[in-house]
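Fold Annotation — chain and its backbone

Fields — amino acid sequence, structure tokens

___
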Amino acid sequence: MEGQKETSVEEKYYIASQWQLMWRKFIKNKLAIVGGAILAIFYFIAIFCEFFSTYDPYKRTKNMYCPPQRIHFFDDKEGFHLSPFVFGIKKELDIESLKMTYTEDKTNKYPIHFFVHGDKYKLWNLFEADIHLLGVEKPGVLFLFGTDELGRDLFSRNLYASRISLSIGLVGVALSFVLGCILGGISGYFGGATDMVIQRIIEFLLSIPTIPLWMALSAALPREWSSIKVYFGITIILSLIGWCSLARVVRGKLISLREEDFTIAAKVAGATDVRIIVRHLIPSFFSYLIVSLTLSVPSMILGETSLSFLGLGIRPPAISWGTLLQDAQRVEVVVLYPWILIPGLFVILTVLSFNFVGDSLRDAADPYK
């Protein structure tokens, strides 16, 4: 019986599809699983950021540069509390430095409630609602990540920023994927003068320093454009360079596959060149394309963050991680109010998670290794 079980397992391994083999090897990488879980949480929160936020991200308060509040389960009088709570805020002006200091007012305690009514919002700009996941009763406040120079809640602003910063990576990579597959497929399949022209264009684009090129193209966007137009403009700009490396991968694969038996058989059967490329050649190495796309998303996110940080990308009032980091350009702000750097932690976590997933997929793409 044990021999039959071992034979059955071996048979399942050798008759498994390429995607099944990739999945089996992928789930063995613990870092990739952790990275995938982090990305799933980030994207889920980004989709429903209005619900997960505690306040309207544009709402100003009188608590400028308030530090993040501590969540408590214990107090001096009653000891342990089953439900978390925060203390009130006491503000004092330092006469010498003219800096507002914040301390906990332990005479006022505000329990943290779930599914509370708060600032109104329109989910996906379609459905009006005012239910938030977390909140406290007035006059209490809940600043989990502190506030900025205008007293706006940074926790809510970071959640709203994730929607733009995370989606711009996917949209940009999708455009790069289409351009890379089309131009790389044409270059590798037809060869000759077409291949030479496309490859010289790719070499020219890759020879241009990336950041100065992005800055020049971003600066060319009209200042009067709306946030939506700027968003799509930045996405297109990031895609103009991102397709080059993918096109080279596609070209190399097609050069090696265009003389294979299944390609010649498709030609003999009367298939058109477009059908051969789209239905036969590209699907044969689609797993490698998935890996390439996964590893390209972090560069798109970093590109948007860099442009927005320099004031050439997403522009206020739109919120992205890059625009939130603009306040960190001043050294004195970083020293006095380090929680302003929290968006950078989200960028680092996202990029690392994508790299973990991409590296694991790259190893899993060769499941017999």
